[in-house]
Structures are given as structure tokens and as C-alpha cells.
Design a protein that fits this description.
rod-shaped, single chain, 1 helix, mainly alpha, 95% helix
Length: 44
């Protein structure tokens, strides 16, 4: 039973880490996409 709880905690921690990373990285990605689309529009 104890192992089960530990594994749940580990999974939860990993999930939170990934979630925080994605919310941190997402604005960056949006900026890059914006720049790329602006370049495409500018090139036309």
C-alpha cells in the first residue's frame, strides 16, 4: 500500500512539473509562431 501512495505522489509531482513547464513555455511558443506568421505575411 505504501508503494502505491509513493508512486501516486511521484506521478502527481511529474504531472505538476510538466504542467508548469508547458504553461511557462507556451507564451514563448506563441511568440515564435507569431513571428513566423508575420514573416510569411511580410514575404508575400
Amino acid at each position: 500500500m505504501k508503494n502505491y501512495i509513493i508512486s501516486l505522489l511521484v506521478i502527481l509531482t511529474l504531472f505538476l512539473l510538466v504542467y508548469n513547464l508547458s504553461s511557462f513555455v507556451e507564451p514563448e511558443i506563441k511568440d515564435v509562431k507569431k513571428v513566423i506568421t508575420e514573416k510569411q505575411i511580410f514575404d508575400k
